[in-house]
Design brief:
mainly alpha, about 0% strand, Growth Hormone, Chain: A, 3 domains
Length: about 475
């Protein structure tokens, strides 16, 4: 009997759960990617230059990355469906606020609130699947959830580009977010009767969440604002100092509290600890590289938002077509060398951007690097996630996945905050070249961490997944 035949068909309740989980997480991750292509249009309408563009991205990542772990605890305490309702309702309201924003500052605040809602949505959607599916059916459902979430990276450039070019950047927030949420809302309400809580859940680590937000937010604010205020300004060095102190206190608190939102003991597991170090470097590189490239193609290269979105598709298409193949190879031979050589290929792809000149020729200056990067991305992603999740005990796979997702989002948050320091206040061709070099260096660091730290399992098959995408 085939594996597919061994999995019983989903019940009507399970089908509703799967649709709700997919739509919810798809929209939350879509907002992570789609805004990049709208940044030039937002800048033209609301002003603020590169600083506001950085904050539009980082405000969302700050609250999403800082709260995604504690949101999992909220889901255990108050019920998966209830917390998902809070997240979806908040996401709809804050999306409307984003679309109505009359200044860059208002948009940044709305994006931060949207990240709070997104932090409630993502872990609750996965917890629903874990709660309503079991055995092989659960594995298949998680695979479908992960695949559709990954698809957000493909459609985001097209949705963002088409919205900007033919309607408005505001259209995405008004309609592409709100309408799907309105459609799925009745299905969420039908799940209320089957909601569940975890009676064994520990207390919620509110203090840890607060320290995490301050610890991340202080340095991010300093790195973004120093470009026009200068390092000598108290408005720069004071938030930096407060953030560093808060992060130290956060780590001390997490090591001592009986119910931490970030169980530090997991980092003592070799592949989990080193895998997250690699994740930090690799996803910082991904975020920085595509943040700069998406803006450059429009503001300097003269592309429309739609054309820029299409120009960025090749690497993601290669990922979708080839990641399962390389994931299978990594399951057979172990993830270590895939996690080593994949980032090296990605780094070479970004170094090929050094051929970019002000008179942009996409076919010779950008596309070759996109293809090389896409191959490296496919080699890297599934083995990376498999090595990390395969290292933790099955009963801790949920928190292991949440930590790895949080590390990936925080990596992007921090590196985008550095963008102005790397490129200067205005993105030029020289700035893109500098950003490409920094991106490549980060990828090489990720490769080195994988080569040094990752060990191949000897007697077990590494589980395959692609949750970070």
């Amino acid at each position: 009997m085939s594996d597919a035949a061994a999995v019983p068909p989903a019940t009507p309740l399970q089908k509703r759960v799967l649709v709700v989980a997919i739509v919810a997480s798809f929209i939350a991750f879509l907002d992570t990617f789609v805004v990049n292509l709208a940044l030039p249009a937002i800048g033209r309408e609301l002003g603020g230059g590169l600083v506001i563009q950085q904050w539009v991205v980082d405000a969302y990542l700050l609250t999403l990355g800082g709260l995604i772990l504690v949101a999992g605890s909220l889901s255990d305490h108050f019920g998966r469906v209830r917390v998902l309702e809070w997240g979806l309702g908040g996401f709809a309201v804050t999306s409307v606020l984003c679309g109505l924003a009359w200044s860059g500052e208002v948009l940044v605040v709305a994006r931060a609130l949207q990240g709070v809602a997104g932090a409630l949505v993502v872990p609750s959607s996965l917890a629903l699947i874990v709660n309503f599916f079991s055995g092989p059916a659960q594995s298949r459902a998680i695979g479908q959830w992960s695949g559709w979430t990954s698809a957000a990276a493909i459609v985001a450039p097209l949705i963002g580009g088409l919205s900007v070019d033919y309607l408005s950047w505001r259209f995405f927030f008004f309609f592409a977010n709100v309408i799907p949420l309105a459609v799925v809302w009745p299905l969420v309400l039908k799940l209320r009767a089957d909601d569940s809580k975890d009676p064994a859940a520990g207390r919620i680590d509110y203090l840890g969440a607060l320290l995490a937000i301050v610890g991340l937010g202080g340095p991010v604010y300093a790195f973004i604002e120093q470009g026009h205020l200068g390092w000598g300004s108290p408005l720069v060095w004071m938030p930096l100092a407060v953030g560093v102190v808060a992060m130290v206190l956060f780590l001390a608190h997490e090591a001592r509290t009986p119910a931490p939102m970030l169980p530090l003991r997991l980092f003592a597991i070799r592949n989990f600890g080193w895998g997250n170090i690699a994740t930090l470097a690799i996803y910082a590189a991904f975020s920085l590289g595509f943040f700069l490239l998406g803006i450059y193609l429009q503001q300097v290269g003269g592309m429309t938002a739609t054309t820029a979105g299409i120009a960025l598709l090749p690497s993601t298409v290669i990922l979708m077509l080839a990641s399962s193949y390389f994931g299978g190879l990594a399951g057979k031979y172990g993830p270590r060398w895939f996690m080593t050589f994949g980032p090296v290929l990605c780094g070479i792809g970004f170094l090929l951007l050094l051929t970019v000149q002000p008179e942009l020729n996409y076919w010779t200056q950008v596309l070759p690097g996109q293809i090389v990067f896409g191959i490296g991305l496919a080699v890297t992603v599934a083995p990376l996630t498999a090595a990390i999740l395969g290292a933790v005990p099955p009963e801790q796979a949920g928190i292991g996945s949440a930590i790895n997702n949080a590390v990936a989002r925080i990596a992007g948050l921090i590196c985008i905050a550095f963008a102005g320091i790397i490129t200067g206040p205005v993105l030029t061709t020289a700035g893109l070249h500098q950003g490409a070099v920094v991106t490549a260096v980060l990828l090489m660091i990720g490769a080195a961490a994988s080569a040094v730290g990752i060990r191949n399992p000897e007697l077990e098959t590494v589980p395959q997944t692609g949750e970070n995408q």
